[in-house]
Every structure is written in structure tokens, then in C-alpha cells.
Amino acid sequence: MSKTIKAKNNKLWIIVLVSSFLGLMVDAMDVQMLSLSLPDLMEEFKLTKVEAGAIATWSIIGMSIGGLISGWLSDRIGRVKVITWSMLIFSIGTGFLAFVHTYEQFIILRFFTALGLGAEFAVANMLVSEYVPTEKRTTIGGSVQAGWSVGYLVATVVASLIMPNYGWRPLFLVGLIPVLLAIYMRFTIPEPEGWKESVQRKKELRKAKKLQNEWISLFKEPQNRKTLLLWVFTAIFLQFGYYGVSSWLPTYLIQELHLDFKNMTSYLVGTYTAMIIGKIITGILADKFERRKLFAIGAFSTAFAIPIIVHYHTAENIVILLTLFGFLFGMQHAVNAVYMNESFPTDIRGTAVGAAHNIGRGGSAIAPILIGMIAMNQTIGYGFLLLAVAYALSGLLPALFIREKMYDPFESGREQNHEKEESKEIAQ
Predict the structure, then answer these.
(1) Please, what is the Cα angle at 164 between 159 and 167, to 5 degrees?
(2) Highest mean pLDDT of the ranges 95-104, 262-271, 402-411
(3) For residue 253, what are the contacts with CB-CB under 8 A and spacing of at least 6?
(4) What spatial distance separates the first Cα and last Cα of the chain, rounded to whole Å?
(5) Are the C-beta atoms of residues 347 and 60 closer than 8 Å to each other?
(6) Which residue range forms the structural domain that includes residue 397?
(7) Do the beta carbons of residue 151 and residue 135 sit within 8 Å?
(8) In 189-260, which residue ranges form alpha helices assigned H by DSSP?
(9) Interval 277-316: pLDDT, tens
(10) Which of 68, 129, 318, 372 qualifies as a cystine partner to 53, CB 3.0-4.6 A?
(11) Spatial separation of the C-alpha atoms in residues 319 and 247, rounded to whole Å
(12) Helix (H) or strand (E) holding 120
């Protein structure tokens, strides 16, 4: 490889990783801004806890639909194109939220905005996996996933500066910033080589009239069907826990731990900082050991931590408990995207990962509204105990049934299928 080509590839690596990191950061900022503004929205629109939970639930449904469609589209038209359009959708939609005047207007616009949020998250993780070699994949993937936690952190700090003096509306205007990043990515980052080779292979099959729709290919192969089903249920349990906690944690700290907004944001900064560190360390460890082990450890540890926080918190130890929880809360997410992307061949990866992650996300959409219903009769903390069970189940399924490194996203579908055939011949 010439020095010129090598320098170009190194520069591209940096651009892809930084852009994906920033993409996940602004995606997370958008989600966190909703959580932070929820107490103010409840007050302005006179909402019950169930109605407040419904905003998050409809957001998750929108994200599920957006992610499901974007996975299939990314197999068809390209990863970068889908990321660009999805960022434009959620950025512009979030900015318009600052101008709504009723609960109904807010929830409808939020649903359409969430279509872009779900699409960007699913495909950005895939783009990173297809640029990073296997031996470094979770180290880099965990670091990129830390961008999501950085987004939570940045949104919390920005909200602490804006909301006490100006209210929730100006906060959503910050959501317009990602438009610039979307334009930059569209004209700077090329599609991954594995995807390009997959497209060429599909053209050859189309000429030979042997090309199958991605959905047919996904369900035709028994191993793909089984893996998809396992990831769907894993995603349901994982995201049930995640969206239940992230939607209600700020409100929980204000209404049940009786913190003022300033102290609440300070506590969350500590939690999200620990989450960033947890993701980076988990990514490094997963490359040295196993994705599956670290995923399971994160799940069981988080499940164990939730009831401790709910039942044993005091004014003196709550900072320590939330910081520890933040570290554990990020572990699964450091490994999840890479682990799942390595479970499917390139030809159908977008469709399969989009389906698994977003059917799971759709199944978890009941979590925020269910916590709201429980809180109406009990407490938000009592509802959190249900999330601990979901986290435990999210670690159990992969630990028992999902192998890791089944496919290498760095390679084309043709190379992977060829290697599978060679392995069968050797075995025979």
C-alpha cells in the first residue's frame, strides 16, 4: 500500500469515527432533552404521569419504525445516505418542537421527529462496524457508543444553563445544530467497501435473475431466523430497561428524591460521566476477552444495582450509587451494536440489525407509560424494580444462545458465504 493511500485511509478512519461519535451524541442529546423537559411539560400542559409517559412511548414507537425502515434502506441505497437524511429529519423536527402550543401537537411532532432518531442510531453503529477491523471493533465501538452518553451529559449541562431562566422551548432549538454535521458527512464519507461489494454482487444476481429480497433472504436461512428472533427478545428486554430508566430518572430525582433542578442535573452529570468511562473500559475488555461475557456481566450487574438504589439510597450515598449505576448502565451498550452486527452477513445486515433492534425497541415502548401507570398508584421507584427483571433477562438470552463473531462486517457477503462453504467442505 502506498504512503498516499495509507494516509488517505487513516484520515478517513478519523473522519468516520469522529462523525459517528458526534452523530450518536446529538441523537442522545435529543432523547435526553425530552427527559429533562418532562417535569416542565407536565406542568405547562397539565399532564398526568400516564400522559407524560405516553410522550416517551410514542417517541420510542417512532424510533422503532424509523430504525426498521432505515436498516432495509441502508442495504439498498447506502449507509451514509440514510444517516444524512435521518439527521436532517430529527434535527429540523426537534427545532419545531419549540413552537408547539398543545400536548397533542407536541406528541404528533415528536413521533415524526423520532423516525429520524431511530434511523440514525441504527445505521451509524453499522457504519462504524463496517470500517473497523475485528480485533479493534469493540474498543472503537465502545468509544463511539460513549458518544451517546456524552450527548446525555452535554444535554444535561445545556439544560441547566437554559431551562431555569428561559424554560423548555429554547432548549429544543439546540436540536437544529446536527443539520451541519449531516451535510458534512454526506459529502465527506464514502460508503464502506463491504457494502459496495455487496451491491455489485446483487447486480450480478439481478442479471442472473437470482436476486432475492433482503427480507426473504433473512427468513429463508434457518440460522438467520433463529439469530434474529433471539436478538429481538434481547432487544425488547434491554430497551425496556433502558427507556424506562432514561425516561423517568430526572423526574424520579426531582419528585421522589426531592432534588431541585440544579442538584438533579449535577447528579446526572456524575452518572453520565461514569457511563462514558464504563463504555470505553467495557469496549477494551470485550476485545481482550469476549463480547458475550461483558454483555452478560453488564446486564446482571445493572439488574442487581436498581433495587439497591431504590431501597437503600440516602442523602449521603445517592451520589455514589448513581455514579456506580452509570458505569454499569453503559456496559451492555458498549458491546451491543458490535455484537449484533457480527451476527449477520453483509448482504442483509442492515435489514437484520434494523429489524432486531427496532422490533425490540417497539416491544419496549410500553416501558415509559407502564412506569407512569405504576407511579400513579405506587412510586416511580417501585416501577424501576420491574426494569431490573428486564435487564436480567436481556443478559440471559445472549449468554445462553447467541454466539459472537459469526460474521465479519469488514468483509463482503460473498467472501463470508465462500468461507462458510469452505468450512463445510473441510468438515466433510
Answers:
(1) 80
(2) 95-104
(3) 259, 264, 267, 268
(4) 38
(5) no
(6) 3-427
(7) no
(8) 193-207, 214-220, 222-255
(9) 988 899 889 888 888 999 999 999 999 999 998 888 887 8
(10) 372
(11) 19
(12) helix 103-129
Task: Dump pLDDT digits (tens) for 367-407.
Answer: 888 888 888 888 888 889 999 999 999 999 999 999 988 88
Of residues 31, 301, 16, 307, the one with CA closest to residue 156: 31
Residue 161: count other Cβ atoms within 10 Å of its Cβ: 11
Please tell me whether residue 327 adopts helix, strand or coil conformation: helix
> Using N-to-C axis directions, what is the helix angle for 318-329 and 331-341, rounded to 10°?
10
Inter-residue contact 185 to 19 (CB < 8 Å): yes
Mean pLDDT estimate for the chain: 82
CATH number of the domain at 77, please.
1.20.1250.20
Residue 256: alpha-carbon gap to chain centroid: 28
* pTM for the full predicted model: 0.72
User: Which residues fall within 8 angstroms of residue 71, CB to CB, at 6 or more apart?
Assistant: 122, 123, 126, 350, 351, 352, 353, 354, 355, 357, 358
Provide the 8-state DSSP code for 134. Answer: G
Domain count, the chain: 1
Lookup: cell for 269: 452529570
Say if residues 129 and 77 touch (Cβ distance below 8 Å): no
Distance of alpha carbon 94 from the chain centroid: 18
Report whether 324 contacts 271 (CB < 8 A): no
Single-letter amino acid, residue 170 = P
Evaluate whether 55 touches 179 at the Cβ level (below 8 Å): no
Percent pLDDT > 90 in the chain is 20
